[in-house]
What does this fold into?
Amino acid sequence: QVQLVESGGGVVQPGRSLRLSCAAYGFTLSNYPMHWVRQAPGKGLEWVADISHDGLNQYYADSVQGRFTISRDISKNTLHLQMNSLRTEDTAVYYCARANPSGWHIFDFWGQGTLVTVSS
Amino acid sequence: QSALTQPASVSGSPGQSITISCTGTTSDVGGYNYVSWYQHHPGKAPKLIIYDVTNRPSGVSNRFSGSKSGSTASLTISGLQAEDEADYYCSSYASISTPYVFGTGTKVTVL
It folds into this structure.
């Protein structure tokens, strides 16, 4: 049974860093591209970043380019999102999602999310 | 890249059919058959219910169906049930700025 469990969210001051984790169960991360998607309070979903199944390619939304880094630890079957230079507008629930083998544009399984609050 | 436009809310009585629209541009919805729909009960994991405009993943009820005309995609829920009350989001592959764009979201209420 496929399951994704996010962790690492919390309250952080602007300019500080935070690392999110997404533990994957029921499948092997090295076989699938993976995404991070976020939802700011009262807003819709926003794609943040993704990583290829082999970890060699990463892509980012313009809003986080240069500040966020997506990576994975295959030994722990866990996806990460390192978030640096955080801004108040990064406040959101962050979801990890698996990309379907038929296409990266199909987010076929999601976690329940972890809340990140950036506030002084 | 702007978010795809969805109605903020749609409601219907049990057993009725409702349709949610998702309007984009020729750079996203209108340019590719890569539209997906997600059901999200707040506090839970979003769930894929339609992909590539019309396809249903295994295990998803056939009461959910998708279609597209030009730059507008639609999700129809037939035989509305109480459990269908949730937020629904469309998404599309996009060729400008960001590769994936989501809709603004629609809250479905079962009266």
